[in-house]
């Protein structure tokens, strides 16, 4: 008996394995999330490097797809590769994902083309990179849930979630730093890290739950992938001008794609209820905690993704130029001035994961959602030219709120399903988050454009005329689509000089007028009023999303007697925390 007890006490491989799994999966989700945002801040250098005019009408689509294409692919594929992990082994699919991600990073860093063809090269290999990232993120939470005992699961998933969201925020600063060297460096950075962790994953990770076998639900996969893709593609095209309108929501292409996508998603639900081996066990959504947790995650992801994008535009397009920063330097400094957001999340994420293991997830997650909404209300009350310390406090609160919500909510979702379905549950969780992030840009941009569309053309035309620009030229410049103005702000481009170049009117003006028009303050001051109107709309919408998330968490609590089966090891023989 003593020998047996000593043997169990000295059984270190299981303990060492869980920390190896945590380290490797944390690096994986960090890299995947980093690449979702690092391009966002590096776009000005990328467009200059491949010689693309960011404000040319035909090039707006390239810019949108560089931003949204990565998230779109991850949103579509995570459930499928999560299901493949349940069937053929989570570690096997995860390891292959690391290899695919690294290969795509190498190909992205050696773009040999120029102009539009170079943009298509980048978009195409970003798709492959997103496929690899989907294989990583869809299975990482399931691998951790298998590796850690129930009482430590919230901590492990919390670390994983912190890494994922920290990657989103750190990517903003890292992108600004790397493009100062070379725009390709935003892809080079993945290569050595990817090679190391790919080899380490193949050497250390092992299957801790049996592969379920089965077969692929082809019709379910096809209808889901094509349907969700169509909806997200329609949202992307909806942001672009059409038929004299600021946005393209009335375009036959947008309406047709949206309707077809929704129809295919409806067909997906019908198919999943009839096939013997569905892609998603829709019975999972009968578990109230699972459904409510995912809906809350979707709402918070939309708010978080939209906030990040709007704050970048606010800083780069208005606040930083008004405080003496050159347009070329605003992307880097925007990332730096958003560091309190990252710091708040990094401080709260691990702590909330630990506390959720001890006290439960409901109170922490719902409190985080309410605090998240309160930070939106605070930002809504700020003037355009704010005092930075107030702004820093508010975005730090937003980061803390995200950390309070993310870890407990993820733990609640993963802990609410049977062990054999954790792979697909992890895929569903990632799909809701990635869909929210992808949709957030479309939703917040649409709301912002709606706020700008009514007053921006008139404001822009009058402002140019007051500086001596002829009425015909000023009116033509005022017709620039609001989406182009927003992208100009995001890319650190002074659109006034760009708009006046074709007419050659700028050299005919006085030196003082030229200096005013092309200086740092004219454009930011000009759009401040219309932009603030848009900010009020998007921040109010963010607060509503947060309230819906908080209510979903509160409604999602299940009585313990109805809890689904758990991993037999975790319930029958709980492990002692180490």
What report would you give on this structure?
With 578 residues, the protein is mostly helical. It is built from 23 helices and no strands. The longest helix has 38 residues, at 12-49. It is globular, with a radius of gyration of 24 Å. The chain starts with a helix and ends in a 6-residue tail after the last helix. Mean pLDDT is 79; it is low at 1-13 and 558-578.
Q: What are its keywords?
A:
578 residues; disordered N terminus; disordered C terminus
Structural class: mainly alpha
* Mean of residue pLDDT values: 79
Number of distinct helices: 23
From the alpha carbons, calculate the radius of gyration and give it in angstroms.
Answer: 24 Å
Distance between the termini: 23 Å
Helical residues, percent: over 70%
Q: What shape does the CA trace take? A: globular
Kindly state the number of beta strands: 0
Strand content: under 5%
Give the H and E element order: HHHHHHHHHHHHHHHHHHHHHHH
What can be said about the biggest beta sheet? none
Unreliable sequence segments = 1-13, 558-578
Any chance you could write out the topology, listing elements then pairs?
Blueprint: H1 2-9, H2 12-49, H3 60-88, H4 90-108, H5 115-147, H6 150-179, H7 185-188, H8 190-204, H9 218-238, H10 252-272, H11 288-322, H12 330-337, H13 339-359, H14 362-380, H15 388-415, H16 422-453, H17 456-466, H18 471-478, H19 482-490, H20 495-500, H21 511-518, H22 522-555, H23 568-572
